[in-house]
Specification:
The chain has 3 helices and 2 strands. The protein has helices spanning 6-31, 82-132, 137-156; strands at residues 59-62, 77-79. The chain starts with 5 loop residues before the first helix and ends with a helix. The mean pLDDT is 82.
Length: 157
């Protein structure tokens, strides 16, 4: 077998050395990861989380963008609560009106009790006077009727 010419062997060696150095340089550049990337072996699993609200409404302001990292308890958005605020004000006004009606009803009850007490006292005063003939039976009957009406009204109201 004849020997290969020296020039051919030298060219093959030079090309081989260039190829090896090029391969190593490419590997080093290829393996380098930018500083803002994480590296390692493993498997990443992500869960998609749907965010819902207790009440339907419109979003007033967003504090995060899609893809932002968030922490537990962080406020992500605020809702437009103007309709709910109006409903709350209406409910509070109805509550105040109902409270005022209760107070008025209690005052009416006290007034009726006072009227009944007065009618009872007047009736008790005129009975002995009517029996003695000091006042007419008609006046005594009027006081008795007023007392009876007040007593009956107390049971129906």
């Amino acid at each position: 077998m004849p020997k290969p010419p020296f020039k051919l062997v030298a060219i093959i060696i030079i090309i081989s050395v260039i190829a090896v150095f090029s391969w190593q340089s490419w590997q080093q550049n290829h393996d380098q990861i930018p500083s803002d990337f994480a590296s390692g072996n493993g498997r990443i699993e992500a869960d998609q989380v749907d965010v819902t609200t207790k009440y339907a409404g419109r979003v007033k302001q967003l504090f995060v963008q899609e893809g932002d990292l968030v922490t537990v308890g962080q406020i992500l958005a605020t809702m437009d609560t103007s309709a709910l605020d109006a409903e709350l004000a209406q409910a509070q006004a109805q509550l105040a009106q109902t409270h005022a009606s209760v107070i008025e009803g209690e005052a009416v009850i006290k007034q009726r009790e006072s009227e009944l007490k007065l009618a009872r006292l007047e009736n008790e005063r005129v009975l002995p006077l009517a029996q003695k003939g000091s006042i007419s039976q008609s006046s005594a009957d009027q006081k008795q009727t007023v007392f009876d009406v007040k007593r009956l009204n107390r049971h129906f109201h």
